[in-house]
Amino acid sequence: MAKKEAAAKKEDFSADYKGKAYDRIVGIDVANSTIKTWTDGGKNQVYRNTIKTINDAGLVYSFKTDYHMFVFNKEVYEVGDITVLGSGGRGKARYNSANFKTEAIIGITKILEAANGERVRVVTGVPSALSKNTAVVEEMKRSLLGAYDVKSVVWDKVETVQFEVVDVIVVPQPLGTIYNYVYDAKKGELNQDLLKQRVLVIDIGWGTTDLAILESAQVRGTFGFEIGTSDCIAGVQEEANTKFPEANIYALNPHELDLALLQSYKVETPFGVFDLEAIVEKHKKHQSENVYKNVMGIGLEYNKFNKIIITGGGALLYEKYLRELFNDPRLLIQENAVCSNVYGFYLLGKF
Predict the structure, then answer these.
(1) CB environment 280-317: b (16+ within 10 A), e (fewer)
(2) Is the pLDDT at 284 greater than 90, yes or no?
């Protein structure tokens, strides 16, 4: 009799966790280059996906008094060291790796309050091609579900953040921008007129370019190919080291070079300052042409789209050349392109 009662209680408990019993929605995009999170009240964060295991936290205490560390699964991690990389790669193995989970859980921790014990609905995305792989998506969900107790450490201030991920929604990455596009912030609802439109979203990320089609309030198709801004950075590195071998640009990891180029074309290395403007513009143009050629090669009926929306970090990097290539008044560079998807993930969790 006791076993039957226990089983009944377990069934009732499980029934509460089908996307309904949550206290907070967190949209999160664990991209190769940056981690973006968005939650209630417009609270959001963007930071480089650079997570490093610390063997001796005391050394960090000694020299970086404001440095942010996290203790998760008895390991100490530092976040924000631009010289290291997070979980990189374009393949399906990345999204089911231990590193990816650690990055996601720390990202959620950073946007929550200490010791709040909230139940969280998480909405995230994967490249369009992977979103059709049920095994990958279901494994991601299983990996992120559960209760967490993470310590946030800044110098001698230690806070414990407790939360439980009770629901995980995984969608094609460009779907976030579609939700962002059709959301009417003034009315707090989805714009029904925009939902009726036929819209193409082109999401240029660090490792991939993903496409999604909105038609009659339905996502009619998703596509993707392995072209991203990392290819541009790799091309710049290769040519810069040929032209300026003394610069040793390869000593900078891709994140470092990307960040440096966002600030100035003149990149400083231990061997001097080198002007990479001509090289960078050459590769930006080349990669823009590569994206354009692959998008047009899919064979879509482009004349039927009301809007062609370009989003992601590549939208900002290649804007000049993409506008020239498309030469189309329907082309829209998504406002706040870097956070467009993650804000849309958050909205998707609400609607």
Answers:
(1) beebbbebbebbbebbeeeebeeeebebbbbbbbbbbb
(2) yes
